[in-house]
Design a protein that fits this description.
Largest sheet: 8 strands, parallel, barrel
CATH superfamily: NADP-dependent oxidoreductase domain
Order of helices and strands: EHEHHEEEHEHHEEHEHHEHH
CATH architecture: Alpha-Beta Barrel
Radius of gyration: 19 Å
Distance between the termini: 36 Å
Number of helices: 11
Strand content: 5-15%
Length: 285
């Protein structure tokens, strides 16, 4: 199987949404950004247009739908009508067609739903129809906890072209195995798999000073820092072609890009996954 060249996607979950971030990313060669309908209190798309409408044509833009304004807090829904309206609003706010739209954390509505399989199939059909009608160029699924999804897949439903899941050394074996299972079921190659949150939400967490992720590199004596090595290993846990990572610091992004050409030791990754599996099997159900 062809090894995909690792790609960095600039994630805008906690971003300050400043123009300099977009220009710095482009200068570094990062040409893909990822946002969501609900980010920045449902104003992320409008803000992107305000700060960089002229830059957006030079960027591949992915976004997500699934969360909607609610009373006091955002609410999740897979209702086809609401998804369609969100897609239409997305096009108006961005003033362009998004390159990729993810169904955002569908498990939030599916956990307790008695008709989860039908709900997921209808949501997938809605995004598939939207793609055919020109509201987006492609669609996928982004899931923080995908463990419930394999049992809810209708083989006759449209299949996503991209799957995004958590990636990295802090991801449990259940998520890793589920990502592999979904990739197989949907026939997704590694370069159609995306990772997110490679540092578990905090690249400065003390855990990255206590662990030495450089053991995952073919050259453990590499000059890469521990955070750089952790980021590089994330492309193999699970196997993904792109990783969405958020940062308002261009120097941090430059450091992460510098790690991409350092090869990872697949044997060490396999042994690590075996350790995770063994640990999970010893835990009480």
């Amino acid at each position: 199987m062809r090894e995909p060249h690792p790609r960095v996607v600039l994630g805008l979950h906690r971003s300050r949404y400043e123009r300099q971030l977009l220009t710095s990313a482009l200068e570094l060669g990062i040409t893909a950004i990822d946002t969501s309908f609900n980010y920045r209190d449902f104003g992320a798309h409008r803000r992107l247009t305000e700060i960089g409408g002229d830059l957006l044509p030079h960027l591949t833009l992915s976004t997500k739908v699934g969360f909607f304004p609610g009373t006091g807090r955002a609410e999740h829904s897979l209702d086809p009508g609401r998804l369609r309206l969100a897609l239409e609003q997305t096009n108006r706010d961005l003033r362009r067609v998004p390159d990729l739209v993810f169904l955002h954390n569908p498990e939030r509505s599916l956990r307790e739903a008695p008709d989860g399989r039908d709900m997921l199939a209808q949501a997938c059909a809605t995004l598939d129809d939207a793609t055919a009608q020109g509201l987006c160029r492609s669609w996928g699924i982004s899931s923080w906890d995908p463990s419930s999804l394999p049992n809810l897949i209708d083989p006759t439903a449209p299949k996503p072209s991209v799957l995004m899941v958590r990636a990295g050394l802090l991801v449990g074996i259940r998520t890793l195995d589920t990502a592999d299972d979904l990739a197989t079921r949907w026939g997704l190659p590694a370069d159609s798999m995306w990772g997110m949150s490679p540092f578990g939400g905090d690249a400065t967490d003390p855990v990255w000073e206590k662990l030495d992720p450089r053991v995952f590199l073919r050259n453990p004596r590499s000059s890469l820092s521990r955070p750089q090595a952790a980021f590089r290993a994330a492309y193999h846990l699970p196997r993904v072609g792109s990783v969405a990572v958020g940062s308002d610091d261009s120097d941090h992004l430059r450091e992460l890009l510098a790690a991409l050409d350092c090869p990872v030791d697949d044997q060490v990754v396999s042994e690590y996954r075996d350790l995770l599996l063994g640990r999970a099997s010893r835990q009480p159900a």
